[in-house]
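$ run holo --ligand "IPE" --emit tokens
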Amino acid sequence: MFDRTEEPSVQCPPRHVALIMDGNGRWARERELERIDGHSAGEEAIVAAVRAARDSGISWLSLFAFSTENWRRPQDEVDFLMLFNQRVIRNNASDWNEMGVRMRYLGKADPRIPDFVHEDIAFAEHLTRHNTAMTLTMAFDHGGRRDVVRAARSLIEHGVPAEQVTEDALAGHMQYPDLPDIDLLVRSSGEHRLSNFMLWQAAYAELVFLDVLWPDFRAEHLQQALDVYQLRQRRFGKVPSAVAVGTRG
Ligand code: IPE
Ligand code: IPE
Ligand code: MG
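-- output --
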């Protein structure tokens, strides 16, 4: 995971794009609707984002669908979000399967997740498991800190001696060890924070914050973020060669 000998060049599309889908509540409030109407309207944005990402040649797309902190919301909204995430699977798993998308759910550890949601998640993961065009990771009941704690616990359970606990070893005990570092992390709705999202994988992500509220997010917004990404110079702690010879910077 931290072997950066194959760093994605800024000339290439990012390999792993992650989206923090935020602003559903504000979108609804602007229209004098209920918050849950904002979540419902977000489905069209999810569909658009998945298609646009696949068409852009992105091989890993991750979406933040429900955080470990979102359990603190009113029970009605939590209940709705459980149903909504099931609905997204029911409405889209077949299309995404045809598009060659492999679906995986990251997190999903809380006993409050209803069985019917687990069943549909298992169905979608099984249906799409051999697809190779793009991996869609739905961060659902996900928390970046909890992911790291679970990996640490797994290392201990496997009896890994302290001197063998390296970054690679810990990464190997994450839920999905093959999930690459995030290249481009986009958050909608104008908020400038990570909200405990994929902290391990976001270590060197390029951050792009867009003002668009999630239900209005479409292919053009992904493209806007990709354009910004193309202009970023990723250094990973090194000195850029052009600056080193004094020609730029
Ligand atoms: C994001 O929209 C959806 C989830 C967090 C599940 P919000 O519901 O957070 O919308 P705002 O931030 O209140 O506008
Ligand atoms: C983060 O958004 C979680 C998801 C997008 C699923 P929140 O709206 O819950 O985050 P905060 O509360 O603004 O940090
Ligand atoms: Mg929010």
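-- notes --
The chain has a mean pLDDT of 94.
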